[in-house]
């Protein structure tokens, strides 16, 4: 089935309940009926709901749909996108290890992966995801993951996924791609050899800014990379916290299973069933929305490119963009989401634009059906050092747009007034 059909039907058998809408199983716990069945569930001899921190029928539908749309083997949903990124890395690395992190990623992810996770004894080494020219030189025997974004936020750059994967596979290292901005409608990293994709479901998947959530999806081939790989002994040796379970011996996708049985079990950043239901509602219309977001964004990017007060525009589907060839190569119908950024030269002018728009709201979310305007250097990337900001293109005059589903001409008029008032 095509992705749009999967988003509407996959993973839910309406004959079980007779409801067209996936039910909300708003519960913390489940009746196992017998002591024997309870023991079997905990021993993985049977599969089924145990406790909503671990699994839930509503959340399971969302997980199945996301895995199917990303062409993956299995998925696990978390309480937030940041939790998804943390789990994805913590499932591979421990104290004394290092991870390779793209320079051009979301500011919150930068802080998590280069500062917060340092306190766990995990070192982050930064690389250029545009061409991966410096990636291989950073790898050593303690490198456990390579993390990058398919479409970076707010730089709107396109990673050289194919080259990153080729280098990672040569060294037996797991790749993690944040596919939040592109969404599974526009791009499937797993089909290009990526091992794991992560998402902030709060963005385009939800589409209404109504719920926080994250997701991790693993590829069909990840088991092969993990099993007997000396880089990842914890998948191949007995897990003392789970009665000596050896994940490599199980007939399941073991990467997300270990997150469920170890990390979500112990840390508990799990989604509520109601939030999972909200994300399901958004996912059902994602295929229609992301294409309209992309069409509006391209029209606005072309307007900004011609405006005399705009120094530069970042939108990879523009004919003049250095990333246009990659967009044509990787993304469905050469569409590149609703994220656009442009530089007006200095902070004061950027602030004036934010304060002058009438339709665009000053918000730090992206992917909403309503249009959003943000100044990254003073908000989402405020904690990043000035020299690091400049190196990654987040200048004082950079303005980021999350282009919504309003009429594009109305949005252009709003920006024109803000630029010229």
Could you characterize the architecture of this molecule?
It is a single chain. With 421 residues, the protein is an alpha/beta fold. The chain has two domains: 3-281, 3-Layer(aba) Sandwich (Aspartate Aminotransferase, domain 2), CATH 3.40.640.10; 288-420, Aspartate Aminotransferase, domain 1 (Alpha-Beta Complex). Helix content is 35%, strand content 13%. The protein has 15 helices and twelve strands. The chain has helices at residues 3-9, 35-42, 57-69, 81-90, 107-114, 161-171, 183-186, 222-226, 254-267, 273-283, 286-306, 324-330, 347-356, 386-392, 408-420; strands spanning 74-78, 98-102, 123-127, 143-149, 174-178, 196-200, 214-218, 312-314, 339-343, 361-362, 372-374, 398-402. It has a seven-stranded mixed beta sheet with strand order 1-7-6-5-4-2-3, sandwiched between helices. Strands 8-9-12-11-10 form a five-stranded mixed beta sheet. Helix 1 (3-9) packs antiparallel against helix 3, helix 11 packs parallel to helix 15 and helix 13 (347-356) crosses helix 15 (408-420). The protein is globular.
pLDDT averaged over residues: 95
How many domains in all? 2
H/I helix tally: 15
Helix content: 25-40%
Rg, rounded, reads 22 Å
The CATH H-level superfamily of the largest domain is Type I PLP-dependent aspartate aminotransferase-like (Major domain)
Outline? globular
Determine the strand fraction and express it as a percent band: 5-15%
Write the layout of secondary structure elements.
Elements: H1 3-9, H2 35-42, H3 57-69, E1 74-78, H4 81-90, E2 98-102, H5 107-114, E3 123-127, E4 143-149, H6 161-171, E5 174-178, H7 183-186, E6 196-200, E7 214-218, H8 222-226, H9 254-267, H10 273-283, H11 286-306, E8 312-314, H12 324-330, E9 339-343, H13 347-356, E10 361-362, E11 372-374, H14 386-392, E12 398-402, H15 408-420
Parallel strand pairs: 2-3, 2-4, 4-5, 5-6, 10-11
Antiparallel strand pairs: 1-7, 6-7, 8-9, 9-12, 11-12
Helix pairs in contact: 1-3, 3-10, 11-15, 13-15
């Amino acid at each position: 089935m095509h992705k749009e059909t999967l988003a509407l039907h996959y993973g839910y058998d309406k004959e079980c309940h007779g409801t067209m809408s996936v039910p909300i199983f708003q519960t913390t716990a489940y009746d196992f009926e017998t002591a024997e069945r309870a023991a079997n569930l905990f021993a993985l001899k049977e599969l089924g709901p145990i406790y909503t921190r671990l699994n839930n029928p509503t959340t399971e539908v969302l997980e199945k749909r996301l895995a199917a749309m990303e062409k993956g083997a299995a998925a696990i949903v978390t309480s937030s996108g940041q939790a998804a990124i943390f789990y994805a890395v913590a499932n591979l690395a421990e104290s004394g290890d290092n991870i390779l992190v793209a320079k051009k990623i979301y500011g919150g992810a930068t802080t998590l992966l280069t500062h917060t996770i340092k306190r766990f004894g995990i070192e982050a080494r930064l690389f250029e995801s545009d061409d991966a020219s410096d990636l291989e030189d950073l790898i050593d025997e303690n490198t456990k993951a390579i993390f990058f974004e398919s479409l970076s936020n707010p730089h709107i750059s396109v990673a050289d996924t194919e080259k990153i994967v080729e280098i990672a596979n040569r060294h037996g290292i797991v790749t993690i791609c944040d596919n939040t901005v592109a969404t599974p409608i526009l791009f499937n990293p797993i089909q290009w050899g990526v091992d794991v994709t992560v998402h902030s479901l709060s963005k385009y998947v939800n589409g209404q800014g109504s719920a926080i959530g994250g997701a991790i999806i693993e590829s069909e081939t990840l088991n092969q990379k993990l099993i007997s790989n000396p880089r990842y002994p914890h998948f191949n040796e007995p897990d003392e916290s789970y009665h000596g379970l050896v994940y490599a011996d199980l007939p399941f996708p073991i990467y997300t299973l270990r997150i469920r049985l170890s990390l979500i079990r112990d840390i508990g950043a799990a989604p509520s069933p109601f939030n999972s239901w909200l994300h399901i509602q958004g996912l059902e219309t994602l295929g229609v929305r992301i294409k309209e977001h992309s069409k509006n964004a391209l029209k606005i990017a072309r307007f900004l490119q011609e405006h005399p007060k705009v120094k530069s525009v970042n939108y990879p589907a523009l004919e003049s963009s250095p990333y246009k060839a990659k967009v044509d190569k990787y993304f469905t119908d050469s569409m590149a989401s609703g994220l656009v950024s442009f530089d007006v030269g200095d902070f004061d002018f950027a602030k004036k634009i934010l304060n002058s728009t009438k339709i665009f709201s000053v918000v730090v979310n992206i992917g909403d059906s309503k249009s959003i305007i943000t100044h990254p250097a003073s908000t989402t990337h405020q904690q990043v050092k000035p020299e690091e900001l400049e190196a990654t293109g987040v200048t004082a005059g950079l303005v980021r747009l999350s282009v919504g589903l309003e009429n594009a001409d109305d949005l252009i008029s709003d920006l024109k007034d803000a630029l010229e008032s």
